[in-house]
Write a structure and sequence with these properties.
- 2 copies of one chain form a homodimer.
- Chain A contains 15 helices and 23 strands.
- The first copy, chain A, is of the alpha+beta class.
- In chain A, helix 2 crosses helix 6.
- Chain A is globular and about 80 Å long.
- The two termini of chain A are 26 Å apart.
- At the A-B interface, strand 2, helix 2, strand 3, strand 4 and strand 5 of A face strand 2, helix 2, strand 3, strand 4 and strand 5 of B.
- Strand 5 of chain A pairs antiparallel with strand 5 of chain B, so a sheet runs across the interface.
Amino acid sequence: MLKHSPDIDFPEWYQEVLKKAELADNAPVKGAIFIRPYAYAIWELMQAEMDRRIKAAGAENAYFPLFIPLSYFEKEKEHVEGFSPELAIVTHAGGSELPEPLAVRPTSETVIGAFMSKWISSHRDLPLLLNQWANVVRWEKRPRAFLRTTEFLWQEGHTAHVSEGDAAQYARMILDDVYSDFMYRVLAIPTIKGQKPPSERFAGATNTMTCEGMMGDGKALQLATSHELGQNFARSFDIQFANAAGAREIAWTTSWGSSTRMMGGLFMTHGDEHGLRLPPSVAPYQVVIVQINDDPEQERLANQLRGSLVELGIRVRVDRDTSRGLGARVTDWEIKGVPLRVDLGAREASEGVLTVLRRDTMQKSKVRLDEFVPAVPALLARIQEDMLASAITRRDQRIGEASSVADAVELAQTGFVRMPWAILRDGGEEQLKPAALSVRCLVTQNGEVPLRDDVDDAIAIVARAY
Amino acid sequence: MLKHSPDIDFPEWYQEVLKKAELADNAPVKGAIFIRPYAYAIWELMQAEMDRRIKAAGAENAYFPLFIPLSYFEKEKEHVEGFSPELAIVTHAGGSELPEPLAVRPTSETVIGAFMSKWISSHRDLPLLLNQWANVVRWEKRPRAFLRTTEFLWQEGHTAHVSEGDAAQYARMILDDVYSDFMYRVLAIPTIKGQKPPSERFAGATNTMTCEGMMGDGKALQLATSHELGQNFARSFDIQFANAAGAREIAWTTSWGSSTRMMGGLFMTHGDEHGLRLPPSVAPYQVVIVQINDDPEQERLANQLRGSLVELGIRVRVDRDTSRGLGARVTDWEIKGVPLRVDLGAREASEGVLTVLRRDTMQKSKVRLDEFVPAVPALLARIQEDMLASAITRRDQRIGEASSVADAVELAQTGFVRMPWAILRDGGEEQLKPAALSVRCLVTQNGEVPLRDDVDDAIAIVARAY
């Protein structure tokens, strides 16, 4: 059991989990973190599955430079206004002052725009579908590990298309198939997909779509965004192509990103008073076998179980650090959120019956030794499903309906609020600010993502947010 | 056929290959490059296999911050002297001047040292084995794509041990099992492993070991290094542990790195007058099927072949861009170095006999359609073997023996030179400089990597180098 409960003091609970589950540590530079091996292993699992989906969407990975001349930002007016306050600037290098200061990339639209302009000449070069996995830097005034850090790891997709329709369709497909479906099926996070109101759009976008997750304290976390950039960047960076008739046209571009912030979302969606709860699909160890005594028979059995599980493609860890007390070991694995724990001591070895703990429910059950291994795959699948179902229930219980700003302010103390966008559109958004609320996204009456200009009767999802 | 031959004008040949094989493009910032999708796909294959080996060596991946306070560098005297001329410095961020300038990491020994000092307290915490995949920045006066760029991608391993012997053994194991064996088996590059002379050691190391590859022009390329750092960094960053008896001791650390430079080594080891030659193990497409005409029967056959090869785990690309001339298409795949090419036209479809080209030898052969797919795995394995064998032959033919500096200068015009280290140790190294030669590494009489202090009768490998 942790010292802090997520129901009572969520921020302190989060700090305690970061430390005790060995996820992150503060770096010497304010707002930057060291991602510790256990968290990085989660990130690698997430990254592998995301990368598979990005490639299935036809995008190719590439690598673009970290440093971007400041003048590149100035080419797109809204972009430079949006990002200027967050830039880190390199002024000296190689022992002397640089002729032009360089920005450390906060995102790569500008430099990729310049490359696209070189590589696109004909409609046959389109669509051009690129993605990169990289670090980016945005100076943060109020950093918080994984949610908002000065430096973070992410993927950023950048595509160019022959028409507005193609670009819109691609941006939407990424939102659906790469982001929202990944979070739902893999992270067991049921996000709400929608369109950002104009005030919350990415700097330079004509449409920003988002997946918003509800955290354990009822606050919203923006987990990934997909943008239509119209012809804004294409015009600034001269991304032109010859159409089938040979005439020059300006391309339509998109960009889309998701980051290590998703790890914060994962921890804050599923964590409880015992620590992390990891869905099996992204758990570095899906099963931990705790060998209770320093005993050759227990060791033999633990190794045998481990071998059989590994053969089934299951990620297993054997904890045989019997020099530590059993209580502390067991608590540590609970804090780390390992989905299944098996305690293996003298009685288990002699009686041939294992005690198995499901971390998501904390339920213990007895399983015969010879029945355990074949049961694990279905059990892990069940945990994954149940975690999603319970996240959906928690979310839905905490969504209220409001028909005025005053009602919204009250309801949003514990969760999300649905209310007509018409109430907020003309000045109402401003009234949310003193209560630290914002419109997280707009959805249609049926809960779909609205088309860009079709938001008159949309529902606004209002919440406190990270 | 390329315009430039590697035998006549190697640097121009390299530039031509970079462009025509779509590997890299220059970034707006001098010395930085854009790694294009085809090269990045090669990097992903290399990275996956390296990562597997690093994990097999027991190291865990983590992520450390990009920005390092300048004061951290100053803690280790040799380290700061070595790296100061290459640092990029951030002086402003978030709209104001920083209280302390930040270096963009050129390597992470210092910041990881600071973390290790926090995380290590007992001998039970050792060895601590960490690795990170990241970008680093070293300002370059004479950049060249993949070989020497201002920013590059790499992995850097950092470990701490209880004793000098453990640290030395681990650093050597990384050199052997992760680096040299990977290059030999996977990249088909037969490197020469050895110890760097003191003048060429990493800044702050007590011993640097290296893998040196011979490029197509006979120059050496340092492909990976593994360092013993003694207690230098541990002392500067206070990495201490309580030994079994409870007394405080200072840890012994290592670091080791390899980078996107290995791609340059791959291209420059195997490339020929037709372009790249890729070993099958790192070829993004191991087989390309060139569909000659826009014809449904050819398309059906191409898809069928593709499907059968994919089932065998082979990476296949079908080129059905029949709007381009066949000659240009075929030349492009030769430049891109795809190991096997199959031309599929009307005659092949009707006669049921395929024309298969081996890129490494440029030999064509006829293969019956129904015999082709089952033959591919063995054929790819054969290409991999033959490419290694021919690289070994080329290397060995270009290693000469010298017994004086004057002889070495002459022999090194075309390849490597072996000569007694005793001749160079006391002032001889200086005499190599005017001829742009250096001691690449020291090996024992038997060609092994010498122990650190056992180099009296070592052989020096002397060469021009990138």
